[in-house]
Fold this protein.
Amino acid sequence: MNRSITSKLPDVGTTIFTIMSQLAADTDAINLSQGFPSFDPPDELLSRIWHHLNNGANQYAPMTGVPGLRVALAEKTTRLQGRIVDADHEITICCGATEGLFSAIQAIVRAGDEVIVFDPAYDSYEPAISLAGGVTRHIPLTVDKSGFDFAIDWQQLADTISGKTRLIVLNFPHNPTGAILQDADLDKLAEIVRSTDCYLLSDEVYEHIVFDGEPHCSLLAHDELWERTLVISSFGKTFHATGWKVGYCIAPNYLSAEFRKVHQFTTFSISTPVQHGIADFLVSNPEFYEELPVFYQRKRDFFCGLLKDSRFNLQPAHSTFFQILNYAEISSEIDKDLAIRWTRDNGIASIPLSVFCEQPFTGTRLRFCFAKDDATLEAAAEKLCDL
Ligand code: PMP
Ligand code: GLN
């Protein structure tokens, strides 16, 4: 056939997560690339969903989300962030964080608007901005001498904001670097945006996976920032259930109203029995997400410990279930080529960082997911120690 189409996303290919997971499957490699646990959600959560499946919760959920789930989230938000949110008007359940981010960007960004992201930036932001007619401005996170501690250059942010800036996208706890924000960072951000009209989109999907006793400093907790922020999160990470694609958007009434205008025509509503089951479990088992930092910190330490005699340089991640390994002592190959070669030839799949950056990225770092059972981590570490 001779037909062709002018692409709306000419620079976009297939996501690195799809490429690396497919390659890992094709080559039978251990897949530490795409971020998903190798274990199941808790039994009690599964049985709550099963209960609702068997008790008639099988038709459309309300467009904004099952009321019990929105109320449970409002209570959690007040308890953890001190923010009182209106479950009816300020919380919307959406199809994973991916839909939340997409709907928020379509709702806020107009043609010609500029949107600031920090590189390495999660891969779904820029295509969503482009589809809204916006222009993405990339600011690289700075990295300190250790090569592992990433942070926002506040001066560069202040210098990049202009009258055209409509939205700033933040993602802390940060995928892939594990960087987190402190309260003082939120105050700096508030100072910078105070005199502007820009909105904030805060991707907090790893809100419950922060280590070493550090708190998660959510934009929800900051009185001034909250007024202009949409916070997006997901149950995928919190309940070991990335395949369920249930997420949420918490935003002040006037922003939630705009978010819902898009959400209702993107997915309309989200799986009913899953929402009911999660609502029950959030209320009955808060210790599950409260204990998540300990659960994942043990995995982080186990994985890092197994690598202590390897030739990788590392610093244990501050958050998320990703560990960055610096391979400078082993190879000078470009990260993407190396990730592919090690998957094919050495049976271990990872994610290169350069694909999340606008500027050519010269670092020798790969991201490895440690949300795996111990046997998988041991088998992976054995391969990594042989490199
Ligand atoms: N944002 C970040 C930073 C992520 O790592 C992910 C994926 N894990 C998402 C958004 C998408 O989340 P979901 O799978 O709930 O759509
Ligand atoms: N967020 C996951 C990661 O960083 C991937 C999600 C996806 O495949 N879209 O690995």
Summary: Residues 35, 96-98, 122, 171, 175, 203, 205, 234, 236, 242, 245, 247 surround 4'-deoxy-4'-aminopyridoxal-5'-phosphate (ligand 1) (CB under 6 Å).
